[in-house]
């Protein structure tokens, strides 16, 4: 499809017109993204219906009802792909004192993957009672209640951030909520050094206002076409 008004019979036009080349590149990228999206849906569907559902588990299926009911303030649940989580945790340095909190944990896939690493504690919070119920059921079935804690809590009112020093976020909130959560994490970093794993870091600039921030890794999630920034504060 030509957007510059030139006739399509101009043989060399598509090869020389920058505007048409840009349109062609955009269409190509859209097709690639659509293919990746359907490929991801297929993989996740197979994982859920063949491996999780028969056992009564559900780490995989999206749940965006909170996104609608909160009018976009809270983003609901969409899992981070397991291979990318392995890459993330594989880039951390462990001393045996790391305590992980997943802020907006949903059904708990991050907690499941984190439990395989030497975190002293693994916990997640989510405001949605239904998602926390699913997460708790998952870990009960897997007999992992002693290893993983799922807490129903509003991230802006949660008062136990100081018990943790590693925080995971998968773009869980819109800016008004995120600003309050960032302020809480910065307050914790004033007492000790913390590590933040920010998947799809839409509001990374909220953290960059803190002078002690040190970005250590940028990783790319090929499945979801998102970046992940790992950084330290304090």
TrEMBL record:
Residues 97-200 form the Methyltransferase domain. InterPro entries: FAM173A/B (IPR026170), Methyltranfer_dom (IPR025714), SAM-dependent_MTases_sf (IPR029063). It holds the Pfam family Methyltransf_31. CDD domains: AdoMet_MTases (cd02440). Keywords: Methyltransferase, S-adenosyl-L-methionine, Transferase. One of its GO terms (biological process) is methylation. The keyword Transferase applies. One of its GO terms (molecular function) is protein-lysine N-methyltransferase activity. It comes from the Bacteria. This is Methyltransferase domain-containing protein. It comes from Parablautia intestinalis. The lineage of its organism: Bacteria, Bacillati, Bacillota, Clostridia, Lachnospirales.
